[in-house]
Amino acid sequence: MKSILTTLLLLSTLVTQAQKEIAPNKWVKMFNGKDLKDWDIKITGYDLNDNFGNTFRVKDGLLTVNYDQYQQFDDKFGHIFYKKNFSAYLIVVEYRFTGEQVKGGPGWAYRNSGVMLHGQTAASMGKNQDFPISLEEQLLGGNGKDARTNANLCTPGTNVVMNTKLIKDHCISSTSKTYHGDQWVHVEALVIRDSVIKHIAGQDTVIVYNQPQIGGGNVSNYDPAVKTDGKLLTEGSISLQSESHPVAFRKVELFDLSPYVNDPKKLAYVIQLLQKRKFNK
Fold first, then answer.
1. CA 159 → CA 154, 220, 222, 278, distances in Å?
2. What is the CATH T-level fold of the domain 26-276, as seen in this structure?
């Protein structure tokens, strides 16, 4: 009996320690549900924080991307940047598409948004630059009938390595299922500097790569000083896209793993705890 009680006490202690390690107060609530005070806005053709057409706004506690004040999209690609850079983290986003695509939006941008990882800062973008140099975890929705994988990787101004091979393709499909309709979709990205990045759709890891680096094309009107091809990306900005289809975000939060990166055992332990946590679908 004493042995059983000792074991139960030990297990209880371990559970308590685990709960404290990833407690709610250790998460960075990037979107506070009230305003955009911790964010910068950059829309193609407009100065920093000129929120053309009130594209990015908070409505009913959601961070929303809207086009009700647009007559035509006219390639006004936009991004909203969290004001702090990160190097090692787990980011969690829950989103859904709403309404119809704005007139003039490209066909590929139907039910299309993204989370940009390891990106350049909003302030370093050119006025007419379309996308930040970054790694995009695509946020996609289906059309109700055709297959369309989610949490794919796109690489504006970047390249990555997969299975020891440098990949220069602009977009690489994941292994995820298709998410049709206006349902809320849960996606994550595990980013550990330049050593590994994983895209997660629901609870499934759907694409993995490493050695993210500046290079390649598919980004226009950037300042040449910021595009140092071959430079490994170990940190950067996080931003959400405006690509012509209305979208709403109800959760944008992050667990900062940088305090653990110099302790591989502790890092692995914390990541394991994060992977085992429960979330509401």
1. 9, 16, 17, 33
2. Jelly Rolls (2.60.120)
